[in-house]
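Example (one chain per record):
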Amino acid sequence: MSTTIGQRWRTGRWIALALIAISAIAAIGAYFTAPRPGGRMDPESTSSDGAHALVALLRDRGVDVVVANNVADVERAARPDSLLLAAETYYTRGTDLLTRLADVPGDRLILEPTSRVRQALAPDIRLGGASMLTMEPDCDLREAIRAGTVQLGATDTYEKARDVEVTRCYGGALVRYHADGRTITVVGTADFMTNGGLLQEGNAALAMNLAGNRPRVVWYAPQRVEGQSGAAGSSLTDLMPDAVTWIVWQLCLAVLLLAIWQGRRLGPLVAEKLPVVVRASETVEGRARLYRSRRARDRAAEALRTATLQRLTPRLGLGPSPSPAAVLSAVVQRYAGDANSVHHLLFGPAPSTDSDLLHLAQALDDIERQVTKS
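Predicted structure:
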């Protein structure tokens, strides 16, 4: 009897140890393969907006990628043979921090720079406009030629601001020039370097070619605000030039006099009953029949797109009269369709048939529904 109990104990002990080992291996595997959240261009994030995939590819290629969380880290890691990759720089506030970034040695790869960052780190170029296309290189830059066709999505374009030799690729979305013994490359978007963007066309090749041409990359993509804006604590009158102050006071006086004059002319409001009440659905149907009778598909499409943009803009957190590139960038992040189709629906040509107009209305309704629920 004791022998049987001992044999069962030894057998059960090994089974328990095996189950514990399997559970431990499964837990470790789940930990290392689980998605790692993070902000845009975060080198540790495995989300679609993160950049963990590109960092891993660079390190596998033998590139020393040093993650810098602040300007002080950049100053410690930068060397004459290194490349400073600067993204999400709108978190960097203050002229002193930008001046310190401009003083670090090595080449620069600047992604989606704000105007302040562009003036500090790439002062020889200026903003040219916005574009959103699948682009060919159309230049003699080796990195772009090897990558071939890429899908940059919504992007800014650049042109030279001074008398320097600038290489423009992809319609100006990527520019490169040499100044003060360093190579400066500016790209109007960082989407092609994110985990989700690497899968499209030649995006991975272009990202590797631009970021992997130096033995060390200082990855500076801050995820929180650093420093303070120089305008912090300044009032509105402090920011106005002296000549503008008098103009503002004159306009205020003119508006006040106009309000008094019009108020005396119009008199008090008088309530008046409407002769007939028309349902909103009948008004819409009547207007639609007028458009159809005149075959004014262009005006109907414009009215649909304008109404959609007016409803979407507050939900996307955009200010009044945003640029098409800003609207597209915000909508694509919440809509399941690709950027080119969204651009065609929101800003494309007028439909040629009634069925195309109906399809446009349904597609705009689908965009609005997905953005609202996201």
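Caption: The chain has 14 helices and nine strands.
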